[in-house]
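If you are new to this repository, start here. Below is one unmodified record pulled from the training split, so you can see the exact layout before writing a loader.
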Amino acid sequence: ASIQRHHLRMAQMVEALKQKPYAYPFVTGDGFRYLADVACDKMQCSFRPELLPNRSVVYLDPKALQYFLKRKLHAIPDHFFIISHNRDLGVPGKAGLPLLQHPKLLKWFGANTDSQFAHPKLLPLPL
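And here is the target side for that same chain:
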């Protein structure tokens, strides 16, 4: 089931990126966003965290970090991954430390990772 979900997600991402000719087939922040199961950004953060399956991928806009910490994090029942991109803000920053240290967070992939907060869960993404 996990492999099927991955293949479906990849097919959806390819189709979505084809709609943005400036991005496909290049690695972009939008491409990372389409890889996610749900998104929490400046435009929306309406997913129900209690319904996230184990090992879900959450796209988190750094500008939505405080909202995510206050409204979503506590209700996520299982392990999850975070992808952050498309901002000049460094992640995690001081505000993101509670998320980085959260026991259910498996990895946080981000652009502009802040080397001041080096952590085994924090992995850089290309711009």
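Two things worth knowing about this chain: Residues 38-124 form one domain. The chain has a mean pLDDT of 84.
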